[in-house]
Write a structure and sequence with these properties.
With 71 residues, the chain is mainly alpha-helical. Helices cover 56% and strands 11% of the residues. It has a two-stranded antiparallel ribbon. The protein is elongated, with a radius of gyration of 16 Å.
Protein backbone atom coordinates (compact mmCIF):
# COMPACT_ATOMS: atom_id res chain seq x y z
CA UNK A 1 0.00 0.00 0.00
CA UNK A 2 1.15 3.49 -0.67
CA UNK A 3 1.59 6.07 2.04
CA UNK A 4 -1.49 7.99 0.92
CA UNK A 5 -3.74 4.94 1.21
CA UNK A 6 -2.39 4.13 4.68
CA UNK A 7 -3.01 7.68 5.89
CA UNK A 8 -6.52 7.62 4.39
CA UNK A 9 -7.37 4.31 6.09
CA UNK A 10 -6.02 5.56 9.42
CA UNK A 11 -8.08 8.74 9.06
CA UNK A 12 -11.27 6.78 8.39
CA UNK A 13 -10.57 4.51 11.37
CA UNK A 14 -10.04 7.54 13.61
CA UNK A 15 -13.32 9.10 12.43
CA UNK A 16 -15.18 5.85 13.15
CA UNK A 17 -13.63 5.63 16.62
CA UNK A 18 -14.50 9.28 17.27
CA UNK A 19 -18.12 8.74 16.26
CA UNK A 20 -18.33 5.63 18.44
CA UNK A 21 -16.99 7.52 21.44
CA UNK A 22 -19.37 10.44 20.85
CA UNK A 23 -22.59 8.64 20.00
CA UNK A 24 -22.18 5.14 21.45
CA UNK A 25 -20.07 5.35 24.62
CA UNK A 26 -21.39 2.00 25.85
CA UNK A 27 -19.18 0.37 23.18
CA UNK A 28 -16.02 1.34 25.06
CA UNK A 29 -17.22 1.22 28.68
CA UNK A 30 -15.37 -2.08 29.12
CA UNK A 31 -12.02 -0.32 28.82
CA UNK A 32 -10.32 -0.13 32.20
CA UNK A 33 -12.85 -2.27 34.06
CA UNK A 34 -11.52 -5.72 33.24
CA UNK A 35 -10.08 -8.13 35.81
CA UNK A 36 -6.35 -7.57 35.85
CA UNK A 37 -6.52 -3.79 35.50
CA UNK A 38 -4.89 -2.26 38.57
CA UNK A 39 -6.50 0.61 40.48
CA UNK A 40 -4.90 2.05 43.59
CA UNK A 41 -6.72 4.89 45.29
CA UNK A 42 -5.83 6.80 48.44
CA UNK A 43 -7.19 10.06 49.82
CA UNK A 44 -4.82 12.22 47.79
CA UNK A 45 -3.79 10.02 44.85
CA UNK A 46 -5.11 7.65 42.24
CA UNK A 47 -3.03 5.21 40.15
CA UNK A 48 -4.57 3.30 37.25
CA UNK A 49 -2.67 0.67 35.25
CA UNK A 50 -4.83 -0.99 32.54
CA UNK A 51 -2.71 -4.10 31.91
CA UNK A 52 -5.39 -6.46 30.55
CA UNK A 53 -7.17 -3.72 28.59
CA UNK A 54 -3.91 -2.79 26.85
CA UNK A 55 -3.22 -6.46 26.05
CA UNK A 56 -6.59 -6.73 24.33
CA UNK A 57 -6.04 -3.49 22.39
CA UNK A 58 -2.59 -4.73 21.34
CA UNK A 59 -3.99 -8.05 20.11
CA UNK A 60 -6.72 -6.28 18.11
CA UNK A 61 -4.25 -3.87 16.49
CA UNK A 62 -1.87 -6.74 15.69
CA UNK A 63 -4.65 -8.68 13.97
CA UNK A 64 -5.76 -5.64 11.95
CA UNK A 65 -2.21 -4.78 10.86
CA UNK A 66 -1.54 -8.39 9.85
CA UNK A 67 -4.69 -8.42 7.74
CA UNK A 68 -3.65 -5.27 5.85
CA UNK A 69 0.02 -6.09 5.32
CA UNK A 70 -0.16 -9.82 4.60
CA UNK A 71 1.29 -10.69 1.20
Amino acid sequence: MTTGKIITVLGVVLVIIGLAVSYAPWLINWFGKLPGDIRIQNKNSFVFIPIVSMLIVSIIFTLIINLFFRK
